[in-house]
Amino acid sequence: MTRAWLLMLGSFATVAFATILLAIVPEVALVEAPAPEGLEPYTASESRGRQVYIREGCIYCHTQQIRDPSFTTDVERGWGTRASVPGDYVYDSPHLLGTMRTGPDLTNVGARLPSRAWHLLHLYNPRAVVEWSIMPAFPYLFEAKDSSDVASDEVVVPVGAPHAPAGKVIVATPDALALVDYLLSLDRTYPVEPPAGGHAAGAGRSAHTMP
Q: What is the pLDDT along the chain (211 residues), one digit of tens a residue?
């Protein structure tokens, strides 16, 4: 009986320690991190797009964390100009750091690829812009319409042959537009305060790279 209680106590202590270390401590640290100058809260459309990003499982293939260039090639790949800092995630709840990079990191995709039309086309059919892409298409975030039925406030996606349905034009739904607004908001190229004893993090926009 004594051994059983010791086993239970040890299991409880292990879970409690892991919870404190992996959940509570990061939450406290993030709450205390100030928002960097240049980081704005998400707009209503960007917040909606963030929920679409979560719903469609984008986090399973993309990260949002630029790692320290002293031991990774994230900066060399053009994904950012500095490592991510806690302040970059002040407005993110939950955070979307991700754990796998089947596709590129998206921390600064809004700076690398600022074209709304590119993102809409890429979401509709990634192979229309990157022939070898393995990213899944999201055609259900769009509507195929006759050109005469397109309203003046609707956004037509520039889909060319052979990807466009015959005799139809592709129109972005509100979810597609919101998702692109969220992607374009991912721009963490502003300068941040250097860590204690460290060097100032660089600013500036990185070169364009395609996912």
A: 577 777 788 788 888 888 887 767 766 665 677 889 999 999 999 999 999 999 999 999 999 999 999 999 999 999 999 999 999 999 999 999 998 999 999 999 999 999 999 999 999 999 999 999 999 999 999 999 999 999 999 999 999 989 989 999 999 999 999 999 999 999 999 999 765 555 445 444 333 333 3
Residue 135 near residue 61, CB atoms below 8 Å: yes
CA 152 to chain centre: 30
* Exposure b/e, 121-155, CB count within 10 A at least 16 = b: bbbbbbebbeeebebebbbebbbebeeeeeeeeeb
| Torsional sign, CA 84, 43, 96, 177 | negative
3-state SS assignment for residue 184: helix
Q: What's the one-letter identity of residue 26?
A: P
